[in-house]
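> run fold DUF951 domain-containing protein
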Amino acid sequence: MDIKVGDTLIMKKNHPCGENRFSVLRVGMDFKLRCQKCGHEIMIPRSKAEKGVKRVESSGED
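> ok
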């Protein structure tokens, strides 16, 4: 899965605030994601993040 910094991930499960859209802040062994509704930042392992992604919206940058 090709996920870059700046992309928006639509996840299968919602964040506790009710939003399922997250911005990617960092990629590597862990992903750092920011909820687009409440701004909470989380770090989750790459394997868990890739399993939970429903769709990736690109940032438009190359």
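The chain has one helix and five strands.
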